[in-house]
Amino acid sequence: MTSDAAAGPLKTTPLHAIARSLGGKLVPFAGWEMPVQFSSVIDEHLAVRQAAGIFDVSHMGEIEVEGQDALALVQRLTCNDASRLADGQAQYTGLLNEQGGFVDDILVYRRAAQRYLLVVNAGNTDKDVAWVLEHARAFRAVEARDASRRYAQIAIQGPRAEAILQGLVPIDLRAIRYYHFAEADVRGARSIVSRTGYTGEDGFEIYGPAEAAEDLFQALLDAGRPLGLVPCGLGARDTLRLEARMPLYGNDLDDTTTPIEAGLGGIVRLAKGEFTGRAVLERQKRDGTARRLAGFEMVDRGIGRHDYPVRHEGRTIGRVTSGTFAPFLKKNIGLAYVPPEHAAIGARFSVVIRERDAAAVVVETPFYRRPQKDGGRSH
Known about the structure:
By secondary structure, the protein is an alpha+beta fold.
């Protein structure tokens, strides 16, 4: 995700009218006018943790990559190993530059052996499309195209998400494992139904035709209200993802941060061979890094917000990338890039809040882990 608003007229999603009709508070976000909340961020956050929430995420971008060289292109541009994917499987990965930094953090969906869908962050879509198209020129048998306008994306998240969605889809949702997907006709519209999520809860995303989005969103609302489903905005999406320690592009990740620094070494597969930025990541895995992304809880009162300085013994050692009050945990939490010796569990430093040093302690992340069930599908 990205938090940087783009210049120019604000775009709207196919669900913009519904957001207005539901009383959503609309704000600029990554070049779009999006609902930040419908009731309160805390109420929406707790609904997702305890029942279910529904989100319009149609502002996200989609890039289709097809042809005999589709896998080769995806492999060259990303740090994870897409050759490990089977049809109907998705993967979190980094679209990297030559310095190993994030052009974007994305999802790769394998729809067939020569057919992939890249799901990218809203504020990065134009940049990502240009990056993919530029590198596609080096391959003879691949076609890449921006398909974002064709797709709407609705996310339903929370422990009751499966029960709510099941009555509206013709497939057995229990058969879709975490980071897998199926393609099916949903209320007459051909759609992708995936199980990934950006909240730390179980849940699903429906990628369908833009013209079918309003009908599906309303049907989900109607089916879910008796089970506690509520519409949710960007505010709750941010607090939920931070409790689950899921990074936000533009805050925790950017083109100067690498997966190793961000604690995402698990998505770096050096054994797959050459890919953009590989040399830098290989060196960092071998020699270490000068900074690491650490999760912290505030000991003193106050919230460490984005870009607040982090100090130790009077010396600035880093900056907060994300920080908030965690509604479910009832704690003030955050992420910050600091030198490795200050990123160990139990290490202490101060966050400068209104020119005051407020004590914080490094803790294990994710801050929140959902209860395991059904064989342990916990994130």
